[in-house]
Design goal:
By secondary structure, the protein is an alpha/beta fold. The protein has one domain: Bacterial extracellular solute-binding protein, family 7 (D-Maltodextrin-Binding Protein, domain 2), CATH 3.40.190. The protein is built from 13 helices and nine strands. The strands form two sheets. Strands 1, 2, 3, 4, 7, 8 and 9 form a seven-stranded mixed sheet that branches. The chain is globular, with a radius of gyration of 21 Å. Bound molecules: (2R,3R)-2,3,4-trihydroxybutanoic acid (EAX). (2R,3R)-2,3,4-trihydroxybutanoic acid binds next to strand 3.
């Protein structure tokens, strides 16, 4: 929370005089990895509009986009420590803080967007948000990153065989790492903040991300090939600090929760839009797109990533997600 809040509070207590007692305004700071015109940035813009409206201007949102505050793992840690008010982030690094959320990272777990959104907006999603809360956060809402596809600078990828030995960046996520090892690639966990440069310099040959991220991050400049593997759905989450929660009354907390709900619709709409138009735009930017990926061998190959999860957490939650209609 910004120091202006303190001044506002002191003004309110009449302890600071000689300062214009303009309405006390609290600046809430939010960080994220992508640009302000991305699915996260647009969602947070809507969050700020709703929060300002509901609070009569008492709260405003200050964006720190494009990894300005560090990688997603670092920003999650800053929120947990109360250094940062809020982050909107993919769930990639989340298992480092909330191990149970690894279930969301299983390759080919979610059938499509309706399945993923239905699970996250329902009972299972609520249970997982409660587990995030239990690790010293204020979990405001599940939002969305999208189904992830593989890009690379080496060759078209149609089967796992095309990935053999390919240096691919993954998020800092144990399940993803295990999955790409099982596919025969050479995975390197890395913060998103370092990714574009690593691709540009050839430190890694490949990466995987939703169309919306590939588009707003200009990966077409450093990646000639896109393969529509859709190998896993990447949720995102809006997390706030417990110190922010403690500073608010019940009504104010409700404003943040309503703003979060409204922002999810905007983020998902942007993901939908880029799913429809983003691939043609990437082709126009020179990417060669493989649309006829042979999915079955990919699904068969990532069994070890599922076993890595079920051997630790069992299969009850996985079975519930798979069975969800
Ligand atoms: O959340 O790290 C990643 O690849 C994420 O998809 C990206 O930061 C957006």
């Amino acid at each position: 929370m910004h120091s202006r809040a303190l001044l506002g509070a002191l003004c309110g207590l009449g302890l600071v005089t000689g300062v214009s007692t303009a309405q006390a305004q609290t600046v809430i700071e939010v960080g994220y990895a992508t640009t302000t015109d991305s699915h996260y940035g647009l969602g947070m813009t809507r969050f700020g509009e709703v929060l300002e409206e509901l609070s009569g201007g008492a709260f405003t949102l200050l964006h720190h986009p494009s990894s300005a505050l560090g990688g997603e793992r670092e920003m999650i840690e800053q929120v947990q420590l109360g250094i940062l008010d809020m982050v909107i982030t993919s769930t990639g690094p989340l298992p480092n803080f909330v191990p149970e959320t690894q279930v969301l990272d299983l390759p080919f777990l979610f059938r499509d967007y309706d399945h993923a959104r239905g699970v996250l907006d329902g009972e299972i999603g609520r249970e997982l948000l409660d587990k995030v809360d239990a690790q010293g956060f204020w979990a405001l809402a599940w939002t969305e990153n999208g189904f992830r596809h593989i890009t690379n600078s080496v060759r078209p990828v149609r089967t796992p065989g095309d990935l053999q030995g390919m240096k691919i960046r993954t998020m800092e996520n144990p399940i993803h790492l295990r999955a790409f090892e099982a596919l025969g690639a050479a995975p390197t966990p890395m913060s998103f903040a370092e990714l574009f440069t690593a691709l540009q310099q050839g430190v890694v040959d490949a990466q995987e991300n939703p169309i919306v991220v590939i588009s707003v991050s200009n990966f077409a400049e450093v990646q000639g090939h896109l393969s529509l593997t859709g190998h896993l759905y990447s949720p995102a989450i809006i997390i706030a600090s417990t110190s922010l929660w403690e500073s608010l009354n019940e009504e104010q907390r409700g404003w943040f929760e309503e703003a979060a709900r409204e922002s999810v619709g905007v983020t998902r709409a942007r993901v939908n839009e880029l799913e429809d138009t983003g691939i043609d735009a990437l082709i126009e930017k020179g990417m060669q797109v493989v649309t006829d990926v042979d999915i079955a061998p990919f699904q068969a190959a990532v069994g070890p990533a599922w076993e890595a999860y079920t051997s630790r957490f069992g299969s009850e939650l996985v079975d519930r997600v798979v069975a969800f209609e």
